[in-house]
Write a structure and sequence with these properties.
- The complex is a heterodimer of chains A (160) and B (455).
- Chain A has 160 residues and is α+β, with helices and mostly antiparallel strands.
- Chain A has 2 domains: 77 residues, Roll (Ubiquitin-like (UB roll)); 72 residues, Orthogonal Bundle (DNA polymerase, domain 1), CATH 1.10.150.
- Chain A has 5 helices and 5 strands, in the order E-E-H-E-E-E-H-H-H-H.
- Chain B is an alpha+beta fold and 455 residues long.
- In chain B, helix 6 crosses helix 7.
- The longest helix of chain B is centred in the C-terminal third of the chain and has 17 residues.
- The chains are: A alpha+beta (160), B alpha+beta (455).
- At the A-B interface, helix 2 and helix 3 of A face helix 1 of B.
- The complex binds FE2/S2 (inorganic) cluster (2 copies).
- The site of one FE2/S2 (inorganic) cluster (FES) has 12 residues of chain A, from loops.
Chain lengths: 160, 455
């Protein structure tokens, strides 16, 4: 199979790999680069567990070919905590019991981060809309919505 | 959270330090940082991918299987059929003496449900395994199939599973689990009203976010490490040991981290064949259900049909209850004989009824084998029972909550399956429900207690 080179910035560090042409970003991150925080729940764009941030936009890594990410800046949930300090969203997901099995959590946090990056003070409707592509089978969504709202509140208090 | 102190005040210590307090879960920090290791987060050099060739028919005889083209497909390392599996016919609950063994790891001579595993293909890549699986030729002779439990129980229905010899599970009590208590016919004769209703449910898929699967690594010393998301670690270990005729000491199972299960990951399906693949190739093997397989192949909650006949007095007492329950096991037992049996013990519900007759059947059909799911065996029964309770209350013009107080079991009451009631708290739960839901009931019910000598 033809190998193609890819090079991108992942959570602040440079990555370069030769991958099989046609490899999804999800598989490249998990199997080649070793970042298993994006999860494969469906590999067909329906669950959101594989969500990552590419150049500031929320993307499904299972529907993104790795070779299209050359030169991109990619963020995953494993890169959010800085110096061992949890990101406010991670803190909020912990505090509001917004994770049970945790399989949807990295994708949820990615979707929530993109929302807060663009809309620092979202309404409940904004949050529901932003998470609408992410399926959780355990928590019942309400704690997740509360987590995002409380992270937004914590952010705005810090900013004030 | 408010903890009301008046309930069971005599046995309450009220020195609760944990209940009612938020406490961090030990696994959450891993979840929010993406560090929690699920089975599929393990990747090993040279790992093979396993894909199944599955039956396109609900019921068919297998005339022949030709794997020659699949074996030649680039990237294919091994193709497995029934003859490769040391102990191919198994049943999960054999560990607790619930037999006979009735299910094949890989189909042998016959398929009994659409989606049944027939041939396993191991290849260097998922894609190669998929493509090769499509090249396996299976010649089927399609047989008549049966999908309805009552049809399956009729004489002359197609026989689903030869290991049983009839389309129901044969309990030591006969064709069904039975509970007999008092004289149910005398109860109906005496009742002011008799109401018979039937209730049914469809199979329900758990749809966990993480699909079923495992990753197996041969350790080079005849031992195998199996990373799995099973919810039934020791059932899986012991059944794998039987299926592969391999001592348990050769099998090292690593699990406990499950990306959603809800009972859907208690069957022993992916591990034995993946370990066999690792053994025969000497390579690490992953077998991970696609989303489609999770939805179509993994066991759902059983479809059930429940027929309830109750005799009730105008004053609100239920004096007779007859229940016939059918659990659709699909083509194989898995956990369903146990589920149907649980139903038999459960059907009077949390109510004290002097005359009870219960029959519960575990029925085989050509549907996807069903298995465990949150409270299986009683969940659908509770739906049926509580809808029936509302209908009975309406029939005699009584408030549905007060109607339940009248019939609620209390400590010391004998249950239909001859277990005395202990530690009942239904009355107190309903009193609290009445309060928080603002659904008032007469004062005499608020004064009742689960202690019989209470009120
Ligand atoms: S794995 Fe990408 S959306 Fe489900
Ligand atoms: S916590 Fe299990 S899927 Fe969301």
């Amino acid at each position: 199979m033809t190998k193609v080179p890819v090079q991108f910035t992942l959570n602040g560090s440079e990555k370069a790999e030769f991958i099989d042409s046609g490899t999804t970003l999800l598989n490249a991150l998990r199997d080649k680069i070793g970042d298993t925080s994006p999860k494969g729940g469906c590999h067909q764009g329906t669950c959101g567990a594989c969500s990552v941030i590419i150049d500031g936009e929320l993307r499904l890594s299972c529907l993104t070919l790795a070779e299209t990410c050359n030169g991109a800046t990619i963020t995953t949930t494993s890169g959010l905590a800085e110096g061992g300090v949890l990101h406010p969203l991670q803190r909020a997901f912990l505090d509001t019991f917004a994770t049970q099995c945790g399989f949807c959590t990295p994708g949820m946090i990615m979707a929530a981060k993109v929302l807060l990056d663009h809309t620092p003070n979202p309404s409940r409707e904004d949050v529901v809309e932003a998470l609408s592509g992410n399926i959780c089978r355990c928590t019942g969504y309400e704690p997740i919505i509360q987590a995002v709202l409380s992270a937004a509140r914590a952010n705005s208090q810090n900013a004030a | 959270m408010e903890l009301r102190k008046n309930y069971f005040a005599d046995v309450r210590k009220d020195d609760l330090h944990e209940i009612g307090q938020p406490r961090p879960r030990s696994d959450s920090p891993g979840h929010v940082t993406g560090k929690t290791a699920y089975f599929a987060d393990r990747n090993f050099p040279g790992m093979l991918h396993l894909k199944m060739v599955r039956s396109p028919h609900h019921h068919a005889r297998i005339r022949s299987i030709d794997t020659s083209e699949a074996e030649k497909h680039p990237g294919v390392v091994k193709v497995l059929t029934a003859k490769d599996v040391p102990h191919n016919v198994y049943t999960i609950l054999i560990l607790i003496q619930v037999g006979p063994e009735d299910e094949t790891v890989l189909a042998d001579g016959k398929v009994r449900w659409k989606g049944e595993a027939v041939v396993a293909v191991l290849a260097e890549t998922e894609r190669a395994a998929q493509e090769a699986a499509a090249k396996v030729k299976v010649d089927y002779e399609v047989l008549p199939a049966v999908f309805d439990m009552e049809e399956a129980l009729k004489p002359g229905a197609p026989l689903v599973n030869e290991y049983h010899g009839q389309n129901y599970y044969l309990y030591d009590s006969g064709e069904c689990r039975k509970v007999r208590f008092g004289d149910v016919e005398a109860g109906f004769a005496e009742a002011d009203h008799v109401l018979e209703q039937s209730y049914q449910s469809s199979p329900i898929e758990h749809a966990p976010t993480e699909t079923t699967g495992c990753v197996v690594v041969p350790e080079g010393n005849d031992r195998f490490t199996c990373y799995t998301n099973t919810q039934a670690m020791f059932f899986t270990l012991d059944n794998t040991s039987i299926i592969l005729q391999m001592p348990g000491s050769k099998l090292h199972f690593v699990g406990g981290t499950v990306g959603g299960g809800f009972g859907g990951k208690v069957d022993v399906i992916v591990e034995p064949i993946a370990i066999l693949g690792a053994k025969l190739t000497g390579r690490p093997v992953c077998f991970i259900y696609s989303r489609e397989e999770e939805m179509q192949i993994s066991s759902p909650r059983a479809a059930e049909k429940v027929i309830i006949k109750d005799g009730v007095m105008k004053d609100g007492r239920i004096i007779a209850r007859k229940v016939t329950g059918y659990t659709d096991a699909g083509a194989y037992s898995r956990h369903s004989p146990y589920g149907a049996q649980k139903g038999a013990g459960h059907y009077p519900g949390p109510y004290t009824i002097p005359n009870v007759w219960i029959d519960t059947y575990c029925v085989y059909t050509n549907r996807t084998p069903s298995s465990a799911m949150r409270g299986f065996g009683v969940t659908i029964g509770d739906f049926a029972l509580e809808v029936q309770m509302d209908k009975l209350a309406r029939l005699i013009g009584m408030d549905p909550l007060e109607f339940r107080f009248i019939n609620a079991y209390r400590d010391g009451d004998m249950k239909a399956h001859r277990q005395p009631t202990e530690g009942a708290a239904l009355i107190e739960c309903m009193q609290e429900a009445s309060r928080v839901a603002n659904w008032p009931v007469a004062e005499k019910y608020m004064a009742m207690s689960s202690y019989k000598n209470g009120a």
